[in-house]
Amino acid sequence: MKNWIKKNKLDLSIYFGFIGIILLLVMIAVLPQYKSAVANQRAFNPTAIQIGNFSIQWYAIFIISGIILAATMAYYEFKRIDLNTNDLFDGLLIIVPLAIIGARLYYVLFDPAGKPESFIDVIAIWEGGLAIHGGIIVATIGIIIFSRYKKINVMVLADILALGLLMGQITGRWGNFMNAEAHGGVTDSKFLFNVLPGFVKYQMQFSSYSSNLVGSGSIYQPTFLYESMWNLLGLTILFVIRRMKFLKVGDMIGLYLIWYGFGRGALVEPFRTDQLKEILGVPVNILLSYVLFVGGGVLFLILKRVFNKEEKYYVEVTDYDINSFKGRN
């Protein structure tokens, strides 16, 4: 066990550091205002910093934190694979903004509330309204183009992207929590009341798009938490098995598509009350989760093994002893 910990201490530091930073951010966002929010029977303030007309929302802080944490993981993974870390930063500067644009445009396109009235309404990501499906689509296209330009194995980049997406989604959902959004319908489940932390139960009495439930003995289902925990489980599994001679290059992105697609389409989205527009009578997020992610992931893994049987194991393209392996800057 000691040898395993020593061998994987960097991975363990990244993993537990990631969880610790999320918990710290949640504490910083909630604790200073918890008592006053309860005393005044109001939701937590989603604004982190307010200086005159300038403000920074907790939603933005969680999103940016997720990107930074994912980039940190990717940086060390680039070193393991002996890739130029400058290429990583170049890619982040291009792909991250494109992914945010894709996520916003997807949301605006399928928002059931109707068409935006101005250009400001289209770009107002500080008010929430990012659909991860759009971000993944654009990020995937960006990765393919970028990898060809930089002459990097696209499957290796996709595997690293899979881990980064999970980290970003886990973190970003707590931004939804602060906005009192991305929740499900009303429930009085005793199980939820017994297992949920007090601050989560309190915030789940409020909604940014529905009536408040203060004092009713009921809460909105914390679907943001369901998705965050589901993705954390997926991240944990991938963090462990990627260091075993089990996954081949390209398998992690396929497993991510299956894991996230099933979780979002079957375990989370059906319970949410803020569905986007429907296609063929099915909310577009549920439809796309099944068709693009679950179907795409399964089909991708099958075809990959048919047409690329000689692909290396992921562990074969990484270096375990990263402490003595500097890689390229």
Descriptive account of the structure:
This protein is mostly helical. It is built from twelve helices and six strands. The chain has a two-stranded antiparallel sheet with strand order 1-2. It has a two-stranded antiparallel ribbon with strand order 3-4. Helix 10 packs antiparallel against helix 11. The longest helix has 31 residues, at 9-39. The radius of gyration is 21 Å and the shape is globular.
Strand count, sense and barrel status of the largest sheet are: 2 strands, antiparallel
Uncertain regions spanning at least 5 consecutive residues = 320-329
Strand numbers in spatial order across the main sheet: 1-2
Radius of gyration: 21 Å
Proportion of beta-strand residues: 5-15%
Topology as a string of helices (H) and strands (E): HHEEHHHHHEHHEHHEEH
Question: Helix tally?
Answer: 12
Q: Estimate the mean pLDDT confidence.
A: 86
Quote the distance from N terminus to C terminus.
32 Å
Number of strands: 6
Helix and strand content put the structural class at mainly alpha
Shape: globular
The helical percent reads 55-70%
Assembly type of the chains comes to single chain
